[in-house]
Specification:
Layout: H1 6-18, H2 27-39, H3 44-60, H4 71-76, H5 105-113, H6 117-124, E1 128-131, E2 137-141, H7 145-163, E3 167-171
Parallel strand pairs: 2-3
Antiparallel strand pairs: 1-2
Helix pairs in contact: 1-3, 5-7
């Protein structure tokens, strides 16, 4: 069992503190495997972070300590690779929508505002939409009370964004607005 270089001792101590272990586990073989992995190019801080994610997983699943592998074996068999650093989230790309002549401007406005194509086809495409003259309200003429009620419940915020209106009014058969 060789000692770790001085620059790795602090990282190994943080790793040993973070990693879940069996009650009888000792640091000797784990220290050797830790040093071997770092020598192969694995970032020691990535091993510390993987140990923390592994510990969180063991706690979340309430794993009995007798079923936790010895730390040296966990490292040797690549257990740390199952708990990699998360990939940083990319900035969302600017939303682009096909605005070719084959696509209706109302559909485009709704998709840009956040409506799915399926929701548009299922609910909105069945209605007549009219914006009033001062652009303060959108009038939705629905073919049934059910469709009007569903659009009220699910899509009013999207309709307001798409048409830049303050309110949405509904007209449906049998009973009016």
């Amino acid at each position: 069992m060789a000692d770790l270089p001085i620059q790795l001792r602090e990282a190994f101590e943080a790793f040993w503190k973070a990693v879940p272990k069996r009650p009888a586990d000792r640091p000797g073989k784990a220290r050797d495997e830790f040093g071997r992995l770092v020598k192969r190019g694995v970032d020691p801080q990535a091993l510390v972070r993987a140990a923390g994610r592994y510990a969180a997983d063991v706690r979340a699943r309430s794993v009995d300590p007798q079923y936790i592998p010895l730390v040296g074996r966990w490292l040797r068999e690549g257990g740390h690779e199952a708990f990699p650093d998360p990939v940083p989230a990319e900035e969302p790309a600017e939303l682009t929508v096909d605005t070719s002549v084959t696509q209706a401007p109302v559909h485009t406005a709704l998709v840009v505002a956040g409506m799915t194509d399926a929701d548009h086809r299922s609910w909105i495409a069945r209605c007549q939409l009219d914006v009033d003259r001062d652009r303060s309200a959108l009038l939705v003429r629905a073919p049934s009370r059910f469709i009007a009620d569903t659009i009220k419940e699910r899509f009013v915020p999207v309709l307001k964004r798409a048409f830049s209106v303050r309110e949405v009014q509904f007209i449906s058969p049998r009973g009016g607005p």
